[in-house]
Amino acid sequence: MTGPAEDTKSQLTLLSSKLLHQHQAVEAALNRHVFVWKEIEEKSQKRSSGISKTSRSHIVQVSEIVGIHKVEDEDHTKSKWDQKKTLQFSQLFPNAFTVFYVKRTKNHRWRCNEATFSCSSAELCEQWIQVTREQLSLLTNRPKRLLVYINPFGGKRRGKRIYEEKVAPVFQQAGISADVIVTERANHARDHLTTEANLQQYDGVVCVGGDGMFSEILHGLVARTQNDNKVDQNRPDAELKPCMLRIGIIPAGSTDCICFATVGTNDPVTSALHIIIGDSQPMDVCSVHHNDVFLRYSVSLLGYGFYGDVLADSEKKRWLGPARYDLSGVKAFLCHNYYKGTVSFLPAEDNLGHPRDKLQCRFGCSICQHKQSSKDKLRETADEETAAEVSSSSWKVICGKFIAINAANMSCACPRSPKGLSPSAHLADGTADLILVRKCSRLDFFRHLLRHTNTDDQFDHSFVEVHRVRKFHFEPLDPQPLLLENQSELPKKPGFCPLGSAQTTCIPSAAHSSWNCDGEILHHAAIQVSVHRQLIRLFARGIEEQQQRV
Ligand SMILES: CCCCCCCCCCCCC/C=C/[C@@H](O)[C@H](CO)NC(=O)CCCCCCCCCCCCCCC
Ligand SMILES: Nc1ncnc2c1ncn2[C@@H]1O[C@H](COP(=O)(O)OP(=O)(O)OP(=O)(O)O)[C@@H](O)[C@H]1O
Ligand SMILES: [Ca+2]
User: Fold this and answer.
1) CA 107 to CA 109: how far, in whole Å?
2) 548 C-alpha to ligand 1 centroid (Å)
3) Which pTM was predicted?
4) Which of 12, 205, 406, 441 is 20 to 30 A removed from 225 (C-alpha atoms)?
5) Is the pLDDT of residue 61 over 60?
6) What domains does the chain contain, in order, with CATH numbers?
7) 325, 336, 435: which to mutate for ligand 1, most atoms within 8 A of CB?
8) How much is the CA Rg of the chain, to the nearest whole Å?
9) pLDDT exceeds cutoff 80 at 549
């Protein structure tokens, strides 16, 4: 908090001068928070026209300035054509500087805008550059050195090009240095982070790829932090230590759901700008155990049944790229499998909202800032038997036949479903939304799926229920294959799903489905899950409510 004296100090003008911008005289000023320029109206112009126009002012937050540079004759980050233009400009106006800053455009996309000013002397130009850079150096949340992992095979295989053409030039403008590793195999980034990387020299880790690549960074960083702090990840009740380094995601994958749900778009330049200005978004992480063995962490979707089957089938079609999910999605939809099991869960406290309250997690979300009370903590650490003594609203148990069991730790918004699997789930509240889709007709399930793509409520069905939870367990039942509604039409090959007939059914390849854990298959159906509040931080800020334009 800043007091009145501090406030006055921060508004003190550090520099103010008449400069030339786009052949127009402007009054430019800089204080600790903003850089402002305003067109100066020529007196003679005003008199002759007889109308006094309001002169336009432009305001850029210092926190959103990417960098400031002298207009030099040579700038190798620019194209040949731009270099030629810059050369001509610098001959006409030798004492000019350019300010690069964040500009908000449509659909949460950010761009790096630039404004060039020419000064009356070389000294004044140097002074502007030096004072502005001093202010930028006071912004201690900004990263200076990053470790970047690129998956050259993620999504449409464009990771390397996206980084080189769209991201590296803006990092250079911001004076960020990056050590780049292009991965040579799956789990290369995870293993390097867990055992080899000298993390002390970095201010953050960046992945260029999709959700799978992010998952590697997550596993590497969390494991490294627990190892360094002697925390045993195999203990389901372990209090995990939060990771110090922030993670940046440059989207270049098939779903990019983590980037989309934390930034509002899957655009590489927008992500690069959030990294540069040093944004910070805490995020919950679910730990998944089978008995006392640690399996994986999840930040987006843990899905059994439908999304597990989609993933298992799509893995065989990796060569298809992002389209594999649509094809496997249609196939799983037509198979219409359901699975028996028991779900038990520890509901979250009422003050953390409800999955259907329509309070979406946005920049500065108040639910995510809510501090957990000691009573809540006690309730959370108690096991199923003792929990009943601590609180009346303790573990709940539901048995049934489920088409899908989905735990959304965040909205899971992505281009396929812009509002996501659970539109009101929160990024950093310490809970996940547990969605149970019971056995229903194909048509009803289709209606439910369709609602993920429009504004209708996907939970408003008699066969769907949703709970906000801190922990949950799943235990599959019935080792025998299910779903033999129409025995005479069974295909001969197990796992083969006849397409084109709504009447036909198929044998599930097993009585159990598998879990889709952020796009990775888990090989145990029985799992125990706990949400660890704010275990990691991303270079993001959550989705901004209103588009502010500069
Ligand atoms: C009628 C249209 C309905 C469309 C319904 C779309 C709902 C899409 C919800 C997407 C939720 C994504 C959650 C994110 C999960 C990520 O951690 C993970 C790793 O990247 N991605 C996937 O598992 C990738 C999962 C991708 C799942 C795609 C499912 C597509 C279903 C298509 C069903 C079509 C039925 C058509 C009947 C004729
Ligand atoms: N050099 C590599 N060769 C092969 N696989 C790799 C390599 N580097 C990373 N991987 C693996 O590729 C998998 C998929 O990567 P990524 O997440 O980037 O793309 P995607 O699957 O297309 O996107 P999404 O996860 O968003 O659906 C990851 O699980 C990762 O472990
Ligand atoms: Ca959450």
Assistant:
1) 5
2) 31
3) 0.88
4) 406
5) yes
6) 4-137 (2.30.29.30), 141-279 (3.40.50.10330), 286-362+394-482+497-534 (2.60.200.40)
7) 325
8) 27
9) no
